[in-house]
Amino acid sequence: MFGIHDLTLFIVSGLLLNVMPGPDSLLIMARSATQGWRAGSAAALGIGAGTMVHVLAAAIGLSALLATSAAAFTAVKWIGAAYIVYVGIALLRSKPARAAAAAPAPLPYRKIFFQGFLTNVLNPKVAIFFLAFVPQFIAADAPNKALAFIVLGCIFNVNGMLWCHALALFTAFASTRLQLKPRVTAWLGRAAGGLFIALGLKLALSKPN
Fold first, then answer.
1. How far apart are CA 40 and CA 29, in angstroms?
2. For 107, what's the count of Cα atoms within 13 Å in the CB-facing half-sphere?
3. Mean pLDDT by 10-residue block, N- to C-terminus, for the chain (209 residues)?
4. pLDDT for 106-156, tens place per residue?
5. Could you tell me if residue 180 is left (phi over 0), alpha (psi between -120 and 50 degrees) or otherwise beta?
6. Is the pTM for the entire model greater than 0.85?
7. Per-residue DSSP letter, 208
């Protein structure tokens, strides 16, 4: 259907790729640990929205520019790296609450959503990934390759959302179950912040393959 082949293999491969740790997973875990599963889910929904941007862009050929134009790749790479480092610095600057009354105001879910969206959509490696991975499951004689690409992209995104929301629930549950103290939670956020900065620097130094 739609010229798609080996769909089962695509789904299994997509699930395995989605569980690999990265900036998306780190953001979900950091928000879930500090604000609960709803905050983690808000980040996950933002990530899913960003993924759909990449899927649609690749389907109409825009992402090919990132793979062939060094200037375009470099521009998006630096913007994305700068934002990831910015998120990391914000997490590093988080302070432990001294008392319940002194706890910092939680971030609005809308802001968390856009953090997830920008973290994903400003990562050119995601665009390169879709261009390299998805076409492997589209037949050369497919009647509508763009439609097949979108269908596969949606399947991949649904799998990703299942994993991301499960990660948000698990992280929030573990945080509550372990009854982490505010100071410990703050240090977890800082650890995630350090990893974000490292990932941002790695992205800034990456090259299109």
1. 7
2. 24
3. 83 79 83 88 95 89 69 71 74 54 66 91 80 80 84 92 92 73 59 70 65
4. 788 999 999 899 988 888 778 877 877 788 888 877 788 888 889 999 999
5. beta
6. no
7. -
Distance CA 152, CA 39 (A): 28
Residue type, 185: T
Would you give the distance in Å from CA 162 to the centre of its chain?
Answer: 13
Instruction: Return the sign of the alpha-carbon dihedral for residues 122, 125, 131, 133.
Output: negative
What number of other Cβ atoms are within 10 A of residue 38's Cβ?
A: 15
Q: What is the pLDDT of residue 105?
A: 62
pLDDT at 42: 95
* AA identity, residue 115: Q
Distance CA 67, CA 78 (A): 15
Whole-angstrom distance, CA of residue 179 vs CA of residue 141: 56
Whether the CB-CB separation of 27 and 121 falls below 8 Å is answered with no
Question: What pLDDT is recorded for position 162?
Answer: 93
Residue 100 makes CB contacts below 8 A (sequence gap 6+) with: none
* Whether the Cβ atoms of residue 146 and residue 59 lie closer than 8 Å to each other: yes
What are the φ and ψ backbone dihedral angles of 61, each rounded to 5 degrees?
A: 95, 0
Alpha carbon distance 29, 116 (integer Å): 12
